[in-house]
TrEMBL record:
One of its GO terms (biological process) is deoxyribonucleotide biosynthetic process. Belongs to the ribonucleoside diphosphate reductase large chain family. Residues 558-580 form the Ribonucleotide reductase large subunit domain. It catalyses: a 2'-deoxyribonucleoside 5'-diphosphate + [thioredoxin]-disulfide + H2O = a ribonucleoside 5'-diphosphate + [thioredoxin]-dithiol. It comes from the Bacteria. The keyword Disulfide bond applies. One of its GO terms (molecular function) is ribonucleoside-diphosphate reductase activity, thioredoxin disulfide as acceptor. Provides the precursors necessary for DNA synthesis. Catalyzes the biosynthesis of deoxyribonucleotides from the corresponding ribonucleotides. Transmembrane segments: none annotated. It holds the Pfam family Ribonuc_red_lgC. This is Ribonucleoside-diphosphate reductase. It comes from Secundilactobacillus oryzae JCM 18671. Keywords: Allosteric enzyme, ATP-binding, Deoxyribonucleotide synthesis, Disulfide bond, Nucleotide-binding, Oxidoreductase.
Length: 721
């Protein structure tokens, strides 16, 4: 922090004392002392003070700190009323880390960096006023949700709302390329532009011809996907928002692409510098057929995308490989090469051990569960976005001859602990949906027309959740127990129900549905079949008690919702996605996403500052037994929890696997009599288990090594909510 009035701060030392046990106990009170010292020594002397709210807004407007358009949509008397309400809530951060993160990364500061211009209530007000777009009732409801931390907008939205000089409100982007030089060039330009305005970029390369495939009209052969990957990595490194952040991207490739081995090899530590990828993330799309061939220990064929597109008349990504595999093997017009399926499975495991990559997208699972007309072909930088796309084609002037549909991610998150205490769960969720709807409506990424087109037609959002482990621990529920999966299923069933209700209401109000709604399983009613044939309410008495004051929709309620949706439609093509939560979960004083914690007292390395310690929320002698580290937990328990949520989430979730390089004894029965070192076999078993449980995507594999290092730590700063 570059602030004017800081001298001899004590808060770092006080915070560091948390890591020094006293009589065998964690001195948690030191965190509160550090918080008090931070507010007194750092925030109070460096807060820019105004004599009135009117003076504050006049100053912010006059000096171009905030936009004037959203401000002019309200009478100032209403803004005063909203501020009165926020101030009455008497908001306080609960930990040093929460306050430190907010003021270091989110609070508006003077241009010279000497003073803070807002506190948390001010930022909540900016978000409420901006996203309500002049609707006073919605602004009050949003202020209520944000100040009580039931709703947390994604980092780009929360940070930039209302600011005059800002980045985009959206979190990340997904684009794809088709098999020609013009589209490749347009894709590289798109990567530059999207990285410039903020957010991570996912790019599908599966449609590109493999190395050695012919190039039309030229007596030569294609170089394959790796050189394109290098061009993209250089593009992200260059387009880094004037050095403020590292450009971030991920490339996806089908596991049946002929360049798959070279694709994976480019991320290895010992790869030749000409092909080695240092910062670009890798993801693999995996159809059912791969699991089938690996299980049978058979060879697998890798197919030429160039030939497949000529034979089938559409790009490689859009072919159902599981369905067409045998036909493609038999087709002599399609060049192919073979390798043992288990050999490739081992290569995937080796790279996951070494780097945490590749992400795994179980593409057939995603498409089977997809209620939307079209095909999902890839994911994003954090693997939770799964939406249909259509390809674009570009002419020699780099103009679109066919404008496809690509994706921008509009994200937000519920705080499970606080939403469970909401006076009206459904109204809270509707308010969140309306805030996210503003983000998708306001987004207009014209520098990449396929993104602009996709967003305009789909109106997609992605509401998720954070704080599952802290909620379970506070309520004395072990993570991974049947009680925990029961709770998770009911919670996400409710998110699904209320986001559907909200989307239906917005469709009715606007007389507008998402593109091709009439071709969806929502329009036919098929989507609702599982909810009107089975009771999805709490199964255990413990979970029934947790939801005793919360409305649980019956089969009849679901049937009524089905009729309403079939009649008036939905505004949003997609509604739910669970992103990984980074710094924003600290501000919410809760645990990240749906993951178990890593440490009861987490150690964070902050730039220029050093180490900061963060005790798990609600940590006490009472809750300590329920706070087992993810690294000491059977990952099948984590998969089971995510599978319970996935049942109700129309997109995906950023599921990370946490492994130790030396596996604790007794954790996995298949290790009995074998080495206690983590092997590719362990990862293969877990990937297959996740696939069988219906998990659509696996994000990082994070490994805690014997020398206390972490491999595969989360580097995504755009979708971390």
């Amino acid at each position: 922090m570059t602030l004017k009035n800081i001298s001899n701060p004590t808060y770092y030392d006080l915070n560091n004392e948390i890591n020094i046990p006293v009589n065998g106990q964690i001195p948690l009170h030191k965190d509160q002392e550090a918080l008090e010292a931070f507010l007194k020594e750092n925030v109070a002397p460096n807060m820019y003070h105004f004599d009135s709210l009117r003076e504050r807004f006049d100053y912010l407007l006059q000096h171009d700190y905030i936009e004037v358009d959203f401000f002019n949509k309200y009478d100032f008397s209403f803004i005063e009323k909203l501020y009165d309400y926020l101030n009455q809530q008497n908001f306080h951060f609960k930990s040093f880390m929460a306050a430190y993160k907010f003021y270091a990364q989110y609070a508006l500061k003077t241009d010279d960096g000497d003073y803070y211009l807002e506190n948390f209530a001010d930022r909540a007000a900016m978000n409420a006023l901006y996203f309500a777009d002049g609707d006073e009732k919605l602004a009050m409801n949003l202020a209520d949700e944000i100040i009580h931390q039931r709703y947390q907008p994604a980092t780009p939205s929360f940070l930039n709302a209302g600011r005059k000089r800002r980045g985009e409100l959206v979190s990340c982007f997904l684009i794809q390329t088709t098999d020609d030089m013009n589209t490749i060039g347009r894709t590289i330009n798109s990567a530059l532009q999207l990285s410039r305005i903020g957010g991570g970029v996912g790019i599908n390369l599966s449609n590109l011809r493999g190395a050695g495939d012919p190039i039309k009209h030229i007596d030569g052969a294609a170089s394959g996907v790796v050189p394109v990957m290098k061009l993209l990595e250089d593009s992200f490194s260059y387009s880094n928002q004037l050095g403020q952040r590292q450009g971030a991207g991920v490339v996806y490739l089908s596991v049946f692409h002929p360049d798959i081995v070279d694709f994976l090899s480019a991320k290895k530590e010992n790869a030749d510098e000409k092909i080695r990828l240092k910062t670009l993330s890798l993801g693999v799309t995996v159809p059912d057929k791969f699991y089938e061939l690996a299980k049978a220990n058979e060879d697998m064929y890798l197919f030429s995308p160039y030939d497949v597109e000529r034979e089938y008349g559409e790009p490689f990504s859009y072919i159902d490989i599981t369905k067409e595999y045998d036909n493609m093997v038999a087709n002599k017009n399609i060049r192919k090469k073979k390798m043992p399926a288990r050999e490739l499975e081992t290569e995937i495991g080796k790279l996951q051990q070494e780097s945490g990559y590749p992400y795994i997208i179980n593409i057939d699972l995603a498409n089977r569960a997809n209620p939307i007309d079209g095909k999902i072909v890839m994911s994003n930088l954090c693997s939770e976005i799964l939406q249909v796309q259509t390809p674009s084609t570009v002419d020699n002037r780099q103009e679109y001859t066919q404008l496809g549909r690509d994706i921008s991610c509009n994200l937000g998150s519920t705080n499970i602990m606080n939403l469970m205490n909401s006076p009206h769960f459904g109204q809270s969720v509707e308010t969140m949906v309306r805030a996210l709807t503003f983000v998708t409506d306001a987004s207009d990424i014209d520098v990449v027309p396929s993104i602009q087109n996709g967003n305009k037609l789909a109106h997609t959002i992605g509401l998720g959740a954070m704080g599952l482990h802290s909620f379970l621990a506070k309520n004395h529920i072990y993570y991974g127990s049947t009680t925990s999966t029961d709770f998770t299923s009911v919670y996400f069933m409710l998110l699904n129900y209320w986001t559907l209700k909200a989307s239906n209401e917005i469709a009715k109000e606007r007389h507008t549905t998402f593109y091709n709604f009439e071709k969806s399983d929502y329009a036919s009613g098929k989507y609702f079949d599982k909810y009107i044939t089975k009771d999805w309410g709490p199964q255990s008495e413990e979970v029934k008690t947790l939801f005793k004051d919360i409305f649980i929709p019956s089969k009849e309620d679901w049937n009524a919702l089905k009729s309403a949706v079939m009649k008036d439609g939905l505004y949003h093509q997609n509604r739910l996605a669970v992103a990984p939560n980074g710094s924003i979960s600290y501000i919410n004083d809760t645990t990240a996403s749906l993951h178990p914690i890593i440490n009861r007292v987490e150690e964070r390395q902050e730039k220029k500052i050093g180490k900061i310690y963060y005790p798990a929320p609600y940590l006490s002698n009472d809750t300590m037994p329920y706070y087992m580290s993810a690294y000491d937990m059977d990952m099948r328990k984590v998969i089971n929890v995510y599978a319970a949520a996935q049942e109700h989430v129309d997109q995906g979730m950023s599921l990370t696997l946490f492994m130790r390089s030396t596996i604790p004894a007794g954790l996995y029965e298949w290790k009995n009599g074998r080495t206690d070192k983590m092997t590719t076999r362990d990862l293969s078993i877990l990937r297959n288990y996740a696939y069988r449980k219906g998990i659509k995507s696996i994000y990082y594999v994070r490994t805690f090594t014997d020398d206390q290092d972490e491999v595969g730590s989360n580097q995504c700063e755009s979708c971390v909510i």
